[in-house]
């Protein structure tokens, strides 16, 4: 194992808001600088490097099953073309999602959420983002809930989405699952806004850097919710992030931020 002695110390998402001396470091789609994004190797590399957890994306397939995949359409990380939901789960799992990244990953397959849960420690933090804007926006919550129940992975799983309807459905059918509400001003209404917060009743609020401010942060903490920032420029926002006592950050620069963790801890004192 790479840096095998480094293990995550936080094993649940429902800790007291603002209580950590340093925000959780969550690897966006795994360690996507060392392995193809949203694959088992990327997730294991993040774990071995010392990330507190990983973020991944799930989509519904043509046969209404889940696959771990970010883009709406094939072509960037997987051979093929057209929307993901025009393919069955088996068809997608036959695609190569590793060759684009490097020859050593040739033949890497699209994982299922079950496979990810089975491949990582049960106490390792996983942030599952539901990708559904219109089609399947309620059904995807049912499928994710089924997987979480099957693995009894309550404390170490956070399920997030831009779509408030998906999160509302999740709250209705399985309130034990912790929910994260994502938004960004760069996205179209209604997912660029947090106006549906009362509907969602999130445990975590996940603003992009363009939507984050300290006033909102204090407001969420006063309600007992936690804040997970993403799309952060770690060179320009390092001091701001430390002073704000964020509960977590989602990063594409895992090795960089892990290497600067001591600096950040010093700034936050």
Automatic annotation (TrEMBL):
One of its GO terms (molecular function) is phosphoric diester hydrolase activity. One of its GO terms (biological process) is lipid metabolic process. PROSITE patterns: GP_PDE. Gene3D superfamilies: Phosphatidylinositol (PI) phosphodiesterase. Pfam families: GDPD (PF03009). Residues 23-261 form the GP-PDE domain. InterPro entries: GP_PDE_dom, PLC-like_Pdiesterase_TIM-brl. PANTHER family: GLYCEROPHOSPHODIESTER PHOSPHODIESTERASE, GLYCEROPHOSPHORYL DIESTER PHOSPHODIESTERASE. This is GP-PDE domain-containing protein. It comes from marine metagenome. The lineage of its organism: unclassified sequences, metagenomes, ecological metagenomes.
